[in-house]
Amino acid sequence: MVQQAKYFSRVSWWLQEARANIYPRRLSKEDIQILDRSFPYFKNLTPSHREEFKQKLSRILSVKEFVGRGGIEEVTSEMEILIGATIVMVTFGWKRIRLPHFSKILIYPNAYYSSITKSYHRGEVNPKYGIIVVSWSCFLDGMKDSHDGVNLGIHEIAHALKLENQIYYNGESEFFNPEAWNAYQQWVSPEMVKIAAGNGSFLRESASLNEHEFFAVVLENFFERPKSFFEYHPALYGALVQLLRQDPRVWMS
Ligand SMILES: [Zn+2]
């Protein structure tokens, strides 16, 4: 069974690769303008890293399917580019990582009602169906202030990244360096206790819900306000630099 699952996942990985080679989604001039206008991380990269970013984005857009839901009839280039760019940013420390298990991105116009949880959601990640879901208005809200440490796109992609690291048979798993992961982990509980006790943590309250939420909120802050994060907790920030193989302080203007 395991052998069979391995075989099928390799085949689907290969098919995804082949499709991306045959029908690559090349970036247009307008696409680059969207990045320059609305994606500060990209704007601040060095010329060679910009090239790398564009290549990775083009590859990600070629292998992922973007689907409008709840009244979104047409997925715009802006939606594809900004969501795709967020995936590139979070995974930029690895050349090849692009979260293949999450091959479909569903986009709702606003917060949407989930019949499973009987509540409204702003976004979610569903490993069973391999989907990432975002509400477009909440996604844009998260991008409006790029230094407040609140960003729905980063949050959901952080969940996907952590899951992908544990999903086998698709060519991407266990890419977290174990030493970096251990270094990160030792700060999780103490920080969660601090948040729950209301002792003035840098991280917002929802980070103390569980270790998955902690990771997602921590990444929002890592990318949106790296300098003040470093000042608050150099060891935790340093562990994240090792884990994600990049230091966003370098790109910050
Ligand atoms: Zn979450």
The main sheet orders its strands as: 1-2-6-5
Number-wise, the strands total: 6
Shape, per Cα inertia axes = globular
Percent helix among the residues? 40-55%
Q: Quote the average pLDDT.
A: 91
| Structural Rg | 18 Å
Proportion of residues in β-strands: 5-15%
Q: Tell me the name of the CATH class of the largest domain.
A: Mainly Alpha
Q: What is the correct CATH architecture of the largest domain?
A: Orthogonal Bundle
Fill in the CATH topology of the largest domain: Cyclin A, domain 1
Task: Compute the separation of the termini in Å.
Answer: 51 Å
Number of domain units: 2
CATH homologous superfamily name of the largest domain? Answer: Glucose-regulated metallo-peptidase M90, N-terminal domain
Distinct bound molecules: zinc ion
Element order, helices and strands?
HHHHEHEEEEEHHHHHHH
Largest sheet: 4 strands, mixed
Helix count from the secondary structure assignment: 12
Uncertain segments are none
By helix and strand content, what is the structural category? alpha/beta
Question: Describe it for me?
Answer:
This protein is α/β, with parallel strands linked by helices and 253 residues long. The chain folds into two domains: 2-175, Cyclin A, domain 1, CATH 1.10.472; 178-253, Collagenase (Catalytic Domain). Helices cover 54% and strands 9% of the residues. It contains twelve helices and six strands. The protein has helices spanning 2-22, 29-38, 40-43, 47-63, 77-90, 136-144, 152-164, 178-185, 188-196, 211-224, 226-232, 234-244; strands at 65-68, 104-108, 112-114, 119-121, 123-126, 131-135. The strands form two sheets. The chain has a four-stranded mixed beta sheet with strand order 1-2-6-5. β3 and β4 (119-121) form a beta hairpin. α4 (47-63) crosses α5 (77-90). The radius of gyration is 18 Å and the shape is globular. The protein binds zinc ion (ZN).
